[in-house]
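Trying the structure run again after the queue cleared.
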Amino acid sequence: MRIIGGKFKGRRFDPPAKNWPTRPTTDYAKEGLFNILMNRFDFSELKVLDLFGGTGNHSYEFISRGCTDVTYVDKFYGCIKFVTKTVETLEIQDNIKIIKADVFKFIASSKVPYDYIFAGPPYPLPNIPQIPDLIFQHNLLKPEGVFVMEHNPNHDFDSHPNFTQKRNYGKTIFSFFENV
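Done. Tokens:
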């Protein structure tokens, strides 16, 4: 895993991925996504939520590009431990809140809206189709905010009322939703 942009560009990290429930986003897909986001946002002004944060891949990219307010959520202890260590290595503790929690419980209890939300759930998760509805039901996205969900071709969100676009990167698909 490597950071592809910003002040930490080129930094590599090797998560101990044996028996991990993670599927890090490929560099190709991540680069495509961040090219879109860089043209839309001033990262230094964003409040970001990284759901199913896994290795912290997306969180590091945002912080590397100037974001100072990232909330990372995952329930797997190994991921939390790895991200905590990586955050210390990068000395970015002031820019990220690491929360060990079930994402669905976090969504239901969070009262804080975000400018940008990313969710990269495990592809076999049976309730993936519910995630966009939950984000909007719980008002987690600020007005004009963007929610991006990573998924595979087994899911299609084109008919969701907040869906705006999708981008395909091989078997990785990013569906974009907006709070308009």
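The CA atoms of residues 143 and 159 lie 20 Å apart. Worth checking whether this holds up in the mutant runs.
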